[in-house]
Amino acid sequence: MLKRTVAATAAFFLLNGVAHAQLSDTEQRIVAAVKQRTPAALELLEKSVRLNSGTLNPEGVRAVGEIYRAELDALGFETRWIDMPPAMKRAGHLVATHESGQGKHVLLLGHLDTVFEKGSAVPLWERQGDRVRGQGVNDMKGGDVIMIEALRALRSVGALDPAHVEIMFTGDEERTGHPLQVARGDMVAMAKRADYALSFEGNSKHEGVDTAAIARRSSGGWVLRVKGKPAHSMGVFSAQSGYGAIYEAARILNAFREQVIEPSLTFNPGLIAGGTDVSYADDTATATAFGKTNVIARDAEVRGDLRYLSPEQGERARQKMQAIVSTGNLPGTSATITFSETYPPMPPTDAGRKLLELYSKASQDAGLGRIDTNDPSLRGAGDVQFVAPHTVGIDGLGAQGRGAHTDDEDLEVASIERGTIRAALLIYRLTQTAR
């Protein structure tokens, strides 16, 4: 038994040594600096999570931003706050810059807000052994802390000096302010200057392997409005009275399901209302309807989202949906549909795959295993999509957890150290490369 134990221990150290032999002396010091700060990193995370920063709580969003701003100021970054117009009712964004003309220019993205608005019953911070439950602990304050701690590790060994890094922490990622040209204008300008964009949303596992995202689907919406002839229900289905708005809405939705489906494309009708009169309130996302069972419905309204992987796929979907709405209407009905896009699609690219390979190589060299790409249909939208048309981007460099956007959102504590090591090595390797 003793011999087997000694042999197993020797094998462990041999494999561990082989993995770390891929790291340079500077990189080994970066890893050591990350590990030394692990308890302090968790304290920084707790400090920021204990502040509610729901998107519609601008004071809380700003307070979290001030915590991160102080950390970045201490690391030698020039920081500033970008205010949004008062009518937008958003907190604004924190921007930080570390300029150098030597290496590649890297843009780092995070967000300060969460889906948990002020007054949420979800605990701010609740330690549960090797996991932490809390508001935005995974999405995405864990990733924000990983970003800051990676930069701190680089600075501690002198590797931040030649790095050209810009950072944007948005204050409205969960409920983006409008107009988008204002809400994301500064981010797009920063992307146009960058060689790479790294976003620190949470990562996930697929078949036991950690993943990152080089593609994300759009996030947009559609509104279907249907008209029928109000009349006594005894005449429904007749040529004179027609079928009514609700039947026509049902026909259209079923045709969408039968005729528009293709891989990576989804269109979800999240709300439907019908009757004699229908109204919808955008600010509360609520609909009201009046109708009687013996009256054919005059109005119907359906609101849904639309997600696609490429602009071409989105255009195909819109054309098919429009054709279904415009043709084959049931007698006595008419319909219109309008579309909107909040987050543009981020289709996979060869450049994105190469960046993922660099990230995976850094992880493997540190003995943390390979990184695979994830299925974009399993993720929502994120800020990286605004920069994707202008630079090479990757997302999912943040913490690993479960239940994002739910009352049970949590993270694995160990993923903070793991993510920080990976991010620090990737940023180091990217910024040491001459432009």
UniProtKB/TrEMBL annotation:
Its cofactor is Zn(2+). Gene3D superfamilies: 3.30.70.360, Zn peptidases. The keyword DNA-binding does not apply. Residues 1-21 form the signal peptide. GO terms for molecular function: hydrolase activity; metal ion binding. The keyword rRNA-binding does not apply. PROSITE patterns: ARGE_DAPE_CPG2_1. Residues 214-330 form the Peptidase M20 dimerisation domain. Keywords: Hydrolase, Metal-binding, Signal, Zinc. InterPro entries: ArgE/DapE_CS, Bact_exopeptidase_dim_dom, Peptidase_M20, Peptidase_M20_dimer, Peptidase_M20A. This is M20 family peptidase. It comes from Piscinibacter terrae.
